[in-house]
Amino acid sequence: MPLNEEKLMLRLKQSPEQLTANMGNWEEFEEALEQKEQTEERLKVLRKELESLRGNVTRAEVITKAAKKKHYDGNVKFQELQAVITKAAKKKHYDGNVKFQELQAKFRAADAVRQTANNHLRSLRIQLKEKEEEKARIEELRREEEARLKEQSQLEEKAKAEAACERKKRKAERAQARAAAKHKKKSNRRKRRKRRS
Length: 197
Description:
Layout: H1 3-12, H2 16-91, H3 97-196
Helix pairs in contact: 2-3
Region (Disordered): 144-197
GO cellular component, one term: plasma membrane
Membrane topology: Single-pass membrane protein
C-alpha cells in the first residue's frame, strides 16, 4: 500500500477529537516520513555516484598498470638502443659524423618517448589519487546519510510509541468516564427508590 493511502487509512480510523488532538503529532510524523523518503532518494543517488566512481578508479588502475608496463618497456628499449648507438658510433666513427648524428637523433627521439611515458604515468598517478580521495569523500557522505536515516527511524519509533500511549490513555479515560456515569446512574436509581419508599 502506498504511503499516502496508508496515512489516509490511519486518519480515517480516528475520531474528530483524536484527529484534532493528534494533529501536531501527525504533522511531525509526516514530516519525519517525508524527510526519510528524501534522504533515501539522496542515498540512492550517492550510491549510484559511488558505483560510477568505483568503475572510474578501476579503469584508472588498469591504465596505470599499462602505463607502468609501457614505462618499463620503454626504459629497457632505451637502454638497449643507447648501447647499440654507442657501439655503432664507435665502430663506424670513420664513416663520418652524418651517421652518428642520425643515431643521436634516434637516441633523442627515444628519450623524448621515455619522458612522455614518465609524464603520462605521473599524470595517471595524480588522477588515481584524486579518484581515491573522491571515493573516500563519497563514502563519508554515505555514512553520514545512514546515520541520519537511523536517527529519523528512531524519531519515528518514538512518535509511534507516544501515539500508542496517547490512545491507551484516552481509552482508559473513556472507560473511567463510562464507569463513573454507570455509578452515577445506579446512585440516582437508589435515591429514587428511597424517595418512593
